[in-house]
Write a structure and sequence with these properties.
Elements lengths: L1 H5 E7 L4 E3 L9 E5 L2 E6 L5 E7 L4 E2 L12 E4 L3 E6 L4 H7 L1 H27 L2 H18 L3 E2 L2 E3 L4 H8 L3 H13 L3 E4 L2 E4 L2 H7 L18
Helix pairs in contact: 2-3, 5-6
Amino acid sequence: MMLQRLQGPRIFVESGKELVHEGQHQHSAYVLCSGWAYTYKGLPDGQRQIIDIQIAGDLLGIRSLLLKTSDQSIVTLTEVEVRKINTERLSDVFRSAPRLALALLWAISRDEAMMVEHLVSLGKRDAIMRTVHMLLELGARAELVGLGTSQGFGCPISQNILADALGITPIHLNRVLRQLRESKLLVFKDGLVTFIDRKRLIESFQMDFAYLNQDIASVKKR
């Protein structure tokens, strides 16, 4: 009941629409019920850095909810269904529904853990390793919410979007994906990521899923 009170009515938004823009006052946070979105920060020269890609079940804008203005923009990748979080009732949740409050804190902590992992990728991993880590992470998250399996998942992300998230050029990403395909490790084609040899990907590129969820270890090597 408290969870329902925390969320507003269902809102359907077309793909390519901005839910929150950087610098926005009185910005909102949302529960992403279905569809895909991404978060980014813009640079003065017009470039952008994609911070994260969100799928169904994720919280949108929760990290900057208490800031005076939003420090990031959120854009829909596909048609989405969202429900706005009623911020005026958040204090009620923390006071009267501690288990729900704990679940919210867990979601925020997992977001933070993903941000740390992405920072490590951008700073220390080469292009092929950061690409593999990103696709394995998205695959694991999709599998957890029933949008994929250990063999692959539908991925409505263009190469330009993925390249921005990885901090490389689309041309470089194309070379990396070709190398992974020719090595018979994975294929990303027509909106579908297929893990040809997921076990070898995990072992060769040292993927550790612990930062996502302790329970994910059970699907790690299926």
